Each structure stands twice: as C-alpha cells, then as structure tokens.
Amino acid sequence: xxxxxxxxxxxxxxxxxxxxxxxxxxxxxxxxxxxxxxxxxxxxxxxxxxxxxxxxxxxxxxxxxxxxxxxxxxxxxxxxxxxxxxxxxxxxxxxxxxxxxxxxxxxxxxxxxxxxxxxxxxxxxxxxxxxxxxxxxxxxxxxxxxxxxxxxxxxxxxxxxxxxxxxxxxxxxxxxxxxxxxxxxxxxxxxxxxxxxxxxxxxxxxxxxxxxxxxxxxxxxxxxxxxxxxxxxxxxxxxxxxxxxxxxxxxxxxxxxxxxxxxxxxxxxxxxxxxxxxxxxxxxxxxxxxxxxxxxxxxxxxxxxxxxxxxxxxxxxxxxxxxxxxxxxxxxxxxxxxxxxxxxxxxxxxxxxxxxxxxxxxxxxxxxxxxxxxxxxxxxxxxxxxxxxxxxxxxxxxxxxxxxxxxxxxxxxxxxxxxxxxxxxxxxxxxxxxxxxxxxxxxxxxxxxxxxxxxx
Length: 456
What we know:
Strand order of the largest sheet: 3-6-5-4
Largest sheet: 4 strands, mixed
Distance between the termini: 69 Å
Strand content: under 5%
Structural class: mainly alpha
C-alpha cells in the first residue's frame, strides 16, 4: 500500500515571498540617481512646472476655467468609474460604448493603461500594507502618494490575476494605442475645443491640458496616500484605509476608502445619500440610460455587521478604561453572624446578597445619612429597590463599587437580575470570555466554601 507523501504546511504567501526573493539593494545617496524612474520623474515634475509657467504667462478666461473643471471630471471619471470600479474591481458591467468612453477619458489622465493600472491596484488590495503592496502606506505618506512611482520598486508587486482584462477587446485596444490616446486626450482635445469654441487655444493648452492634468494626478494619488492616513475606520481597522469627507472631495468620491477596502466589489464608495461620491452617481445614471448593468452592492446586513463590530470594539475600549465592581468570585464569602459582627464595627449593609461598605457615602447620601444608618447590619434589598426609594441606575452602579463581600446562603444571585448593576448588563465580552467555563461573573449562594472569608 502506497503512503501519500507528507505535505508541509503552506506558508503565508507574503512571508514566503519575502523569505525566498531578494529585494533590490536599499537606495542610498550613491545609487539614488540610477534608481530613479526617469520617465515618471519627467512626467510628474514637468507637468506642474509647465502648469506654473504657463499659468503665469496665460490669462485665464472664465470659459476656459469652466471647461477645465469639466475636463478634470471627465478624465478623472475615466480613472474612478473606469479603471478603478469597472476594470480593477468589476463592480458593474458596461456596454461597449461606455467602455470606450471610459477607456478614452482614462487615457487623458496619463496614469498608465487600464491593464497596467488594474494589475497594480489588484495587488494593492490583495497585499495591503505589506511589502508586496506597490504603494504600501506603511512606507510613509509621500511614498504612497508618489514616491513609489519616482523610485524603482525594491520588490516586484505581489501576484495579481488580470487574465480577464487580457481578454477584453477594449482593454487590448487601449493598451495598443495608449501613447497616441494620451497625446490626443491630454493635450490635443483640451486645446482644440477652447480654440474652436471661444478662440482660446493657448488657455486650453495650459489650463485644460497641463493644470488639469496636474490636478487629476494628485487627486488620484490621494487615494493611495490621504485615504490611508486621514479619517476613521468604521468598518474594519485591520489595515490602514480610512473614510473622510476631505479625501472624498479630493478624489471625485473615492474618500470612503475603509468601506471600499472591506467591500471592494461594491460599485459605491459612499453608502449614505449625503456622502460625496459623484462616481457612484455617474455609474447609477449610466444604468438608468441603459449603458451600465449589474451594479454590485454588498448585502446591507453584512455591511451593518462590519459597522457593529467596530462600534463594539470602540465600546470595549471605553469599557476597559473604566473601573468596575469586584467580581463575586474575588470577594470573600461570609456568614450572617460574621456580617453582623463586622457591621457593629463599621457601616456595612446588605443588598441583593452583596455586602457593601458605605463608610465613604453615609454623609453624601442624597436622602440623608439616617436612611443608610438604620440599615447597617441589615438586608436593605427591598428598601433599595423601591420599598423606600426605587434608586436610579447610577445609584445601583455606584453601590456595586462598594462591594466587599458575598453573604453565604443569601439569595440565588445567578438568577437575580438586581444583583447585576445596569452598567454591566450590556457589558461587552470577547468570544473567549463567553466560552470560558470560568466566564460567569455572578456569585452563587449555594457554593460550598470551606473557609469563611474576611471582608476587605
């Protein structure tokens, strides 16, 4: 009989890759120039330089200003609605007309072809915040913003499947004609339209061409940097993506990045009607016009679970910062006679099976000290819970902090709701605490103690 070979445990892909592949040597002042990606350096430095010089020497007409803003959104949507949500995440289906529309407009943003851009972005999602993430936020704000493009990567980005894009006629067409498309959409079109429309070819070339391109670049770059630095994590805090309105305003709606990283197949970034996400509304309008179909939405029930998980986590952090009553298992168990004897020496009262030392509160009692004094050494449960006065939750919580012992043979605390202070009835417990055989924090009056404890 043949025995199958023993298969070793498969290592985590990231750690395995980091162990088995060598990165390029660290960048130093000696090799700095040779490690620059000079094509990207030229694009990302000449564009703002040309924008500043051109704007200084070119008057901005209001028609050109409006067109530049329009063209910014047009080419920006090519990235957000096209490259990002359609091709990188397949969050909806688009007809051929819309695909070509977005492929052409995306080329005007000069951020690489659809296939190249989507391959890097899929790696970013799969290996977020690791060394296999091409724009790893862990390397710092400026690295994730643009440093990763200016320097040759120390490692090849992690594996990402783009076979679906390789089969797309539109993606292949754009990849093949990419250089021609970026020249046409980045400079020819934004120059010709103002020229033919209101005779401002130079203004179009400068403002709708270079200045607009500079804004589109850094708008998109903010998704890799600002969206991993500014804001909160309302859905999950395992990784760095965050949600913030400012980032959304800077990125045509891509600022609710924590949601996006949790639910990347969802065509939305913002799920609330008042949150700024023009890309979502653009896709929705395309659906109404019959240009887009199958808009994917993550089940609301699961989205709310993610929100609840983080809310509970924040509450747990607040909970752990507060002082709580001693656990009944940590308190001494004493007999009625011992309780009577010690109550003769100091102010002890019994409420719901717990013995409380109220020395620090006698003179502070809102109803007067005599109401407490007359119950010293007695069972004040009935009086506390409505017999004399039905105390507030705050009073119950405060009383619990004064517990010093448990009365032996008292009441079945495990089933007495009044033995648990209101603040603890909804106390958040971890799964391990709930599953532990020692998880109960209630005292049982029938437990068998060999020795009678002394009150602390």
